[in-house]
Design brief:
Number of domains: 1
Helix content: over 70%
Order of helices and strands: HHHHHHHHHHHHHH
Number of strands: 0
Structural class: mainly alpha
Strand content: under 5%
Length: 329
């Protein structure tokens, strides 16, 4: 499945011409495909909220008879046309897509990196890099601790041969690893400020007199691959998305009894903080292209949540107005 995702992404790249923006377009297409499920999930959450008073009444009435409580709850859900598990559908589908995209971006980044290193080895020149906004190479992490090109001596330990790939072969990977340890590659990295950049953290902390702070900041801007903005944006957008998702979840009653909706679990303290911190961690250490997918997906989902909420709020107001008119008549 990761191979299919990679093929689609490369097809989009053929039209867009930039992998950073291709990831944004791909993310938008994924969210459009999943939009009907998101709408169904939101509708189910609102329906669960609407029937919560009845659910809580049943929970209190049959608190000592769990079997009868479950039977009455099922009858209530059928009568009200509510499916408690409907809220799980987007999550159950989104998570596999996330992991498939993770694999696709890993293979794509490895292919692009190996191909670039071999081209540098053959021609002595660095090909045009895939930049995106402030990021100079989307196949390196968006971080002030990441270099534009792979580091000198990097063994590419995480790069493995892939069946069917003309680039990720044992011979190509071995050749790339060998070239990374040569003086020729070190000279090319130095031309990108890599050697100066490696000393940057020490210069900033200890104010090395041989390299002034303004020059160190200049190195940070020009020689680091990114500014660590995507991991921060990914974490913030994940927090907001989790908050928006949980806002529609039915809340616990005074006795602390909760329903079984997935959205209510998402609103728990653990989930509310785990996913943003996990976003920060994975986007900080992985290539920027995947971080773009993560952040763009969160932003699009937030916009969808706001739009869908407004739509259902409008429908509820219309229903309330019709009911009021019916009472008057």
């Amino acid at each position: 499945m990761s191979g299919i995702f990679q093929s689609v992404l490369e097809w989009i790249y053929g039209w867009v011409g930039n992998y950073g923006w291709s990831v944004v377009v791909f993310t938008l297409l994924v969210r459009i495909v999943l939009l009907p499920l998101d709408i169904k999930s939101k509708k189910s959450m609102r329906a669960m909220t609407r029937v919560q008073p009845k659910v809580q009444a049943l929970q209190k009435k049959y608190a000592n008879d769990q079997e009868k409580l479950n039977r009455k709850l099922q009858e209530l859900y059928r009568t009200e046309h509510v499916s408690p598990m409907a809220g799980c559908l987007p999550m159950l589908i989104s998570l596999p897509i996330l992991w498939f995209m993770f694999g696709a971006m890993r293979n794509l980044a490895n292919e692009q990196t190996i191909q670039m290193i071999l081209q540098i080895k053959e021609t002595g020149e660095v090909p045009a890099l895939q930049s995106w906004l402030w990021i100079k190479n989307v196949f390196q992490p968006d971080s002030f601790m990441a270099t534009i090109l792979p580091r000198v001596g990097d063994q590419l330990r995480m790069v493995m041969p892939v069946n069917g790939s003309a680039i990720l072969t044992e011979a190509n990977i071995a050749a790339a690893r060998e070239f990374l340890a040569t003086d020729a590659y070190a000279a090319i990295v130095a031309s990108y400020g890599g050697n100066e950049f490696f000393l940057l953290p020490l210069n900033l902390v200890f104010f090395n007199p041989t390299l002034t702070l303004p020059n160190s900041l200049d190195s940070l801007i020009h020689h680091a691959n990114g500014l660590f903005l995507l991991p921060i944006f990914a974490a913030l957008s994940q927090f907001l998305m989790t908050k928006f998702t949980g806002a529609a979840a039915p809340q616990a009653d005074d006795s602390g009894t909760q329903d079984n909706s997935a959205a209510n679990a998402m609103n728990s303290g653990f989930m509310k903080w785990f996913f943003p911190l996990f976003s920060l961690w994975i986007c900080a250490g992985y290539n920027a292209a995947f971080a773009i997918y993560w952040m763009a997906g969160n932003v699009i989902m937030i916009v969808q949540q706001v739009a869908v909420n407004k739509y259902f709020d409008h429908k509820d107001r219309q229903a309330a107005a019709k009911a009021e008119d019916a009472e008057i008549k």
